[in-house]
Amino acid sequence: MEYGHWVEEQNKHVSELRAALQARVSDIELRMLVENGMRHYDDLFRIKAIAAKSDVFYLMSGMWRSSVERFFLWIGGFRPSELLKVI
What we know:
By secondary structure, this protein is mostly helical.
């Protein structure tokens, strides 16, 4: 649920960046938007770290991903069990 909220926020950040690039805003405003985007990704890694500490198998299973992300991982041949073999 928290990941879904993160994705919604990400879409909003991307829209703001695109609008800023088309409007040709100042470098300072653009820098602020990029820093907000970077902080947003920090939140994603924080969420993943919390999930990994509580249940690493849930994180590896990919159930928190969207169906499109799971589809592309499946097409690419990614299997969580392969990580266990590597470890």
